[in-house]
Design goal:
8-stranded mixed beta sheet, 13 strands, alpha+beta, single chain
Length: 275
């Protein structure tokens, strides 16, 4: 759970860090190596938190004279309505985007998340972004990373870092049934749709399912039928998801710019952990 500590007590020292725009390759590599969701979302803008004074033992991508220790991704959600419903006056996919990934190294002290997101949104404002929708998954999601570490939260997320930025809480997304793979990862509906359609990334999706024990798909076999059978064979299960917590963040270089962004959904009280 995010906490705050004074710099003198080991809290986040913003003088040590810089947030910069990133190319896709380093951003993607960082997310796939460190985030509890292994997939790479359709990205429009990517931003990195750079540690200008990294400890000697830390390893990672060198960026801008320092070490990449965090990534924020703004991109395209599953549906246009996910943006227009929240920001009815903004142009989706340019003025309005989804903040689909926020991932910081454990080496970054308390308060680093809100600093990084705020700085990334200031940079995004320079590209004309005026509103961002973001979600916090209350369901526990854990992933064993390539180096053996565990990413995610055993208790789920409430969106505390967005609350720290005074984001507007607009309730939950629609409850739905999700497919959970044997390794604990949720199979995104977007990935399933792209595989069935044979779109870009379909081969990688199929390799992932086969790596979990599914048989090879016969040449010419119907993709949907094969996937249905393969998921049963590897022990994937269906689970009812209550919906993710949805937040809206106006974006602008000044408070005046931010206040001009209209949020189309009513503000609700922030969700809190139950003691």
């Amino acid at each position: 759970m995010p906490t705050w500590r004074h710099t003198s007590q080991g809290g986040f020292d913003r003088r040590r860090y810089e947030v910069v725009e990133l190319a896709e390759a380093p951003a993607r590599a960082y997310i796939q190596a460190n985030h509890y969701l292994s997939g790479w979302p359709p990205a429009v803008h990517r931003y990195g938190l750079v540690d200008l004074e990294p400890a000697g033992a830390e390893i990672g991508h060198d960026v801008g004279g320092g070490l990449l220790v965090g990534v924020v991704v703004l991109g395209v959600p599953m549906s246009r309505r996910a943006l227009t419903r929240v920001f009815p006056s903004l142009e989706p996919y340019s003025e309005a985007l989804e903040m689909s990934r926020v991932c910081l190294s454990p080496s970054v002290a308390s308060n680093g998340e809100s600093f990084t997101v705020a700085a990334a949104l200031r940079l995004a404002a320079g590209h004309g972004v005026r509103g961002v929708v973001t979600y916090a998954d209350p369901v526990a999601r854990l992933r064993t990373l390539p180096d053996g570490r565990t990413a995610g939260s055993p208790h789920g997320h409430l969106g505390v870092i967005y609350q720290a930025l005074s984001a507007t809480y607009t309730g939950r997304s629609t409850a739905r049934t999700v497919t959970v793979l044997p390794d604990g990862q949720v199979l995104p509906a977007r990935s399933i749709a792209k595989f069935v359609a044979g779109d870009r990334g379909a081969d990688g999706f199929e390799r992932r399912i086969r790596a979990l024990g599914a048989p090879e798909r016969p040449a010419g076999a119907d993709r949907r039928t094969w996937l249905h059978t393969a998921l049963k064979q590897i022990g994937a299960r269906s689970s009812r998801h209550p919906g993710t917590h949805r937040y809206a963040l106006p974006v602008g270089r000044t408070s005046a710019e931010r206040t001009r962004t209209v949020i189309g959904l009513g503000a609700l009280p922030y969700p809190k952990h139950v003691a």
